[in-house]
């Protein structure tokens, strides 16, 4: 399920200054938030904001061209981090008056990033001292990612603050941009461990935990067992895991089992009950409740939709 901030109304045609990357800017002391809209097809449009930028797609489709990376499609529910002196070149292959693109861009001052990173490293150091907190704008797999619910919630609050007229909005904005940076670094830490856990299994205690979970999904998995793999007490493991990755160990196990369930539901002969137990759940009602909570639809409907899509594609 794509995680999107609350919808932002499109501008009326009479309010647009340009049909390509029309920009509405909200400037606060702590950050600058822009909403970009494109209402016609365009290719290789350059854009640079002069600061580190977190962009989030709200509607439509772009193709992004960034230095040192292969071109990639950019879709709603995804975000991209761009360095301070990097120019994006953007294609809008499907944009028109009926199906415009829209995205958010949050420009973050360098001082804010440095202060937040320093605070985390001093007060809340990561489990592995050789891997301090940092914001990665260069590694492709860390700079383009699917939004987490936590990051999406923070972005939504930034939009609300930007458009509000309250007297204390700049104070609240300062706290919220720091929270967004923490959520962003947690998301990047997830990308690092969840997708490259084999590479880091001997150098990062949480990578060993991720590897164990992925290899034992169908078995009972306890927090005590995972804490032992991380060489931590149960309480310390639970606290540090959530602080670094933005979710609890239990939530991580559930997400991994649901990902396996989604894979199994695509198999024509697999029933929902069969998938439930093969993915490591031991109660079909609980499985169906969790699946709908995380994916927004029931496993049965997910299976039917995937089957219909495969028939159309075939």
TrEMBL record:
GO MF, one annotated term: DNA-binding transcription factor activity
Query: What keywords would UniProt list here?
Result: DNA-binding, Transcription, Transcription regulation
Q: Which Pfam families match?
A: AraC_N (PF06719), HTH_18 (PF12833)
Question: Would the keyword Transcription regulation turn up in this protein's UniProt record?
Answer: yes
Q: Where is the HTH araC/xylS-type domain?
A: 207-305
Q: Which InterPro entries match?
A: AraC_XylS_family_regulators (IPR050204), Homeodomain-like_sf (IPR009057), HTH_AraC (IPR018060), HTH_AraC-typ_CS (IPR018062), Tscrpt_reg_AraC-type_HTH (IPR020449), Tscrpt_reg_HTH_AraC_N (IPR009594)
Enumerate the transmembrane spans: none
Q: Which residues form a coiled coil?
A: none
What is the protein's name according to its record?
A: AraC family transcriptional regulator
Taxonomic path: Bacteria, Pseudomonadati, Bacteroidota, Cytophagia, Cytophagales
